[in-house]
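Sequence in, structure out. Go.
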Amino acid sequence: MSINFENIGKQIKETLNTDVAIIDKYGFILCSSIPEFKKNSVLSTTLLDFINARSRVALELNSQEINSLVLTISGTNFVFTYGDQVFIMTKIPDRVNLSEFLPSINRLVSMLGKNSSTLEIKEFKVFDISEELVKIEKDIEIETSRNEGKYAIFTDIIKYINKL
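Output:
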């Protein structure tokens, strides 16, 4: 079953009057109206680790599971609402009452989770790491050449002290 996440995202945006992104459990952004998170891109590992920390946080709080996490940054709330296969990130101004907003978004995510057992990625971008490896090798060579002889005086002092 193929789900049109773009239409779902548009409906959420119109209904809740807020920017939204639908993201799979691997961090792939399926649709987004949040300017910072473009469609068909992948969340940074830092943000994905934060989002996936919910099970550890739930254990720390002696809870079974966490349905939503709220991150407040400069007067904007980023709300992460979890489902089985996808989660929804919404960007909400701080003037919005979250106690009224969260039940609606929780129901929507649970409904999406029931309708999507497996998500298909039709287009996947290949990332060539050879350029990155060349840059890393050059950086290592530069750093190694800088450090040659840098600590030679300490080696000489240690040798001298050992002779005494």
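Check: The CA atoms of residues 137 and 143 lie 10 Å apart. The helical segments are 5-16, 45-52, 54-60, 98-115, 130-147, 152-163.
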